[in-house]
Design goal:
Helix content is about 25%, strand content about 30%. By secondary structure, the protein is of the alpha/beta class. The chain has a single domain (about 1-175), classed as Purple Acid Phosphatase, chain A, domain 2. The strands form 2 sheets. A 5-stranded mixed sheet has the order 3-2-1-9-10, with no helix packed on it. A 5-stranded mixed sheet has the order 4-5-6-8-7, with helices on one face. Strand 1 (about 1-5), helix 1 (about 20-25) and strand 2 form a beta-alpha-beta unit.
Length: about 180
Amino acid sequence: MKIGVLSNTLVPTALPTLPERVFEIFNGVDIILHAGDICDLQVLQQLEPVAQTYAVYGEQDNQLVRKYLQATQRLEFANRAIGLIHGHGAWEGNLIQRARYLFDRKAQLECLYTYVLSGFTDVHAIVFGHSREPYMKMHDGVLLFNPGSVAQLPGQPASVGILEIGANTIKGRIVPLQEY
């Protein structure tokens, strides 16, 4: 099973529409997972004809988007459980803690990883967004997978992800949107 993964599309706030390259990369996927910061339900409507799409909301999503989506989902595909979360609650806390994260990106990211892991039990992978940085690493037997951001940031290329689920495995890869 092949799953297309994206996050932080930010349409129309940062992008007028989804880049055509997203549809090229997702051609042939069985499922699409969107990890939040969609901003416009039109994004999900564009993805649905490609493959069945599951999504959660992020902090950039308005009340209309939040009306239709949950903050988290636990999904099962091919006998593999996947948690889906944006991750925007990770950096909430007292003022001193939040100020520390402003100056320590490593601590900020470690807090995000801990937060998304704490949101799910008994999953094989967790798909998340929020940081806008691609990330793929095993944490105590759970694959943490952030596809990066479709909306490009300075110094950070836009990207999506692909998860492939086998009989006993989940493998991921990050795919840059810009062709080289």
